[in-house]
From TrEMBL:
Belongs to the AHA1 family. Residues 29-155 form the Activator of Hsp90 ATPase homologue 1/2-like C-terminal domain. This is Activator of Hsp90 ATPase homologue 1/2-like C-terminal domain-containing protein. It comes from Ktedonobacter robiniae.
């Protein structure tokens, strides 16, 4: 059920709504390889336009409970996307926070990995509420498809880097 209303913020009316994205893909690699790409090689496949600032020079995920997902712009500059709320090696990664949306927005993103023969089934769930316009909902739905089904898949299966670190390679 979507909660609809308005927040007064410097005179602008912002829609309060919810977002629910569900995506399932299969990647031709082991859960260990996919999990490593999700957690330690995120800058290899995550990048523009799915970053807050185009001058970001990397995106980092600290793969531990309480670890951060954040962009770095320069020395002591960046943006926090979320925090690791739960992690099970090679099985699940849960992040909570704004995930790049305007504050006040709160969300949870869960990646669940399951072996499927020689491949891995990856399930993503992104649920959020806050300042989420219809346009932003569409951007996140399509964005997750591109990040996982195109970029993550290309990196894991073919070692193709399309993320932030591809700019400096």
């Amino acid at each position: 059920m979507a909660v609809k209303g308005a927040i007064e913020n410097t005179g602008d009316m912002d829609v309060v709504d919810s977002l629910n994205v569900h995506l399932e893909i299969t990647i031709a690699a082991s859960p260990q390889k996919v999990f490593e790409a999700l957690t330690t090689d995120i800058a290899a496949w995550w990048g523009s336009p799915f970053i807050k600032r185009r001058d970001a020079n990397t995106i980092v995920l600290e793969p531990k409970v309480g670890g951060r997902l954040y962009e770095v712009y320069g020395e002591n500059e960046g943006a926090l996307w979320g925090m690791v709320s739960s992690i099970r090696n090679d099985e699940e990664l849960c992040l909570t926070g704004s995930m790049g949306m305007p504050e006040p927005t709160y969300g949870a993103v869960t990646f669940t990995l399951a072996p499927q023969g020689d491949s891995t089934q990856v399930k993503l769930t992104h649920s959020a509420f806050g300042r989420i316009s219809a346009e932003r909902k569409g951007c996140y739905t399509e964005g997750w498809k591109d990040l996982l089904d195109v970029r993550l898949r290309a990196f894991v299966e073919q070692d193709v880097r399309t993320g932030i670190d591809a700019r400096s390679a």
